[in-house]
Amino acid sequence: xxxxxxxxxxxxxxxxxxxxxxxxxxxxxxxxxxxxxxxxxxxxxxxxxxxxxxxxxxxxxxxxxxxxxxxxxxxxxxxxxxxxxxxxxxxxxxxxxxxxxxxxxxxxxxxxxxxxxxxxxxxx
Length: 124
Prior knowledge:
The chain contains six helices and no strands. The chain has helices at 3-18, 28-49, 60-67, 75-78, 84-88, 101-123. The protein starts with a helix and ends with a helix.
């Protein structure tokens, strides 16, 4: 398996974890973290496909900026920068508003769009 495909496999895995059936003990914050990881890994896989070593970061905006040197970035992909907050601010308990079901569902859509876009770019 090529290196970029390994990253996409991990992105698919993170998205699958984010989509698990929510049970009462689960926190939306934790599931949104997995959605962020799916988008991050998909973008890093695409960077590797373009033969650019991705930066060691959770910042999706920085990854998108690096990708913009290789391809156009659709608006729905640019919106995934919101997911960065789930890797930084909500990863551990702190003083922030609880993530709502609606925000969780939006994070799934954003991550899935990001993964699908990366897969389409690679498959041509």
